[in-house]
């Protein structure tokens, strides 16, 4: 099953980093978050990726063009006709198709533009800025059992702030950190889709999270795979630093490889 990764947005909420490179290329540890997402899929045996680029698409293309060289030990022998010797092969067993889907194309439009690379078969879709420790093989099996057009991974991100109970006189009677369980379920990405979804995408201006998914829900063709484990998007520098700290400490839940 092929995986589409949406990696074309401007990343304006993390402009401290994204003014230099697309958000999926922002590094966590020593590798882009895009690489972390792909490694998560590969851990479960999924190794064919279609990356929908837009903003600074060249950076993603150059990363994969040079991937083998950057991940290998190499000897350059300038005295011997500039001979180059590769000492180890650390390239991933991946097939990666990088597609420039337009600078201002909406999420649904990006998916529609890569339809020819999917064909008439089910596929997976996720965002290029979030990591998760979801069991992707179990997610696929759940989707097949449900038999619907679309399955999304539902997560509870929780809240960042404490909850206050404030009395009429202004006194705080209770302070409690907001628990994850107190929040609602949201779309965490990591979706499984049938090719019929393409029929619900009109063109470049279609937002995938609006009409296509809303229409699936209206038809009873949208199911949720509830994930109670780790999930985190990287919208801000604060979130990037939090993910970085988890990797540095060796405590990143999504790193199973």
Protein structure class: alpha/beta
Major sheet, described briefly?
Answer: 8 strands, mixed
What is the N-to-C succession of helices and strands?
Answer: EHEEHEHHEEEHHEEHEEEEEHEEH
Poorly predicted residue ranges? none
The number of helices is 9
Query: How helical, in percent, are the residues?
Result: 25-40%
Determine the CATH topology: Spore Coat Polysaccharide Biosynthesis Protein SpsA, Chain A
Architecture in CATH? Alpha-Beta Complex
Count of distinct structural domains: 1
Number of strands: 16
Gyration radius, in Å: 21 Å
CATH top-level class: Alpha Beta
Note the main attributes of this structure.
257 residues, alpha/beta, Spore Coat Polysaccharide Biosynthesis Protein SpsA, Chain A, two-stranded antiparallel ribbon, 28% helix, Nucleotide-diphossugar_trans, NTP_transferase_dom, transferase, G1P_cyt_trans-like, Glucose-1-phosphate cytidylyltransferase
Describe the secondary-structure layout.
Elements (H helix, E strand, L loop, with lengths): L1 E6 L7 H4 L8 E2 L2 E2 H11 L4 E6 L3 H9 L1 H4 L3 E4 L5 E4 L8 E6 L6 H7 L1 H4 L4 E5 L2 E3 L3 H11 L3 E6 L6 E5 L5 E6 L8 E2 L3 E3 L17 H9 L2 E5 L4 E3 L3 H12 L9
Parallel strand pairs: 1-4, 1-8, 4-7, 10-15
Antiparallel strand pairs: 2-3, 5-6, 8-14, 9-16, 10-13, 10-14, 11-12
């Amino acid at each position: 099953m092929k995986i589409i990764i949406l990696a074309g947005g401007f990343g304006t909420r993390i402009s401290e980093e994204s003014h230099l490179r697309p958000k999926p290329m922002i590094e966590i540890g020593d590798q882009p978050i895009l690489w972390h997402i792909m490694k998560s899929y590969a851990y479960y045996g999924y190794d064919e990726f279609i990356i929908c680029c837009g903003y600074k698409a060249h950076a993603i293309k150059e990363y994969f063009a040079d991937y083998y060289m950057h991940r290998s030990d190499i000897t350059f022998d300038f005295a011997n006709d500039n001979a180059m010797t590769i000492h180890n092969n650390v390239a991933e067993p991946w097939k990666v198709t990088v597609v420039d889907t337009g600078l201002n194309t909406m999420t649904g439009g990006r998916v529609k533009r890569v339809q020819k690379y999917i064909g008439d078969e089910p596929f997976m879709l996720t965002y290029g800025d979030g990591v998760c420790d979801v069991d992707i093989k179990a997610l696929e099996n759940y989707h097949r059992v449900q038999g619907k057009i679309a399955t999304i991974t539902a997560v509870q991100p929780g809240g960042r702030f404490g909850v206050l109970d404030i009395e009429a006189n202004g006194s705080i009677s209770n302070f409690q950190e907001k628990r994850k369980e107190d929040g609602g379920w949201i779309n965490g990405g990591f979706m499984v889709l049938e090719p019929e979804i393409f029929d619900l995408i009109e063109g470049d201006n279609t937002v995938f999270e609006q009409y296509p998914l809303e229409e699936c829900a209206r038809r009873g063709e949208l199911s949720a795979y509830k994930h109670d484990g780790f999930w985190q998007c990287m919208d801000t520098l604060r979130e990037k630093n939090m993910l970085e700290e988890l990797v540095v400490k060796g405590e990143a839940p999504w790193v199973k490889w």
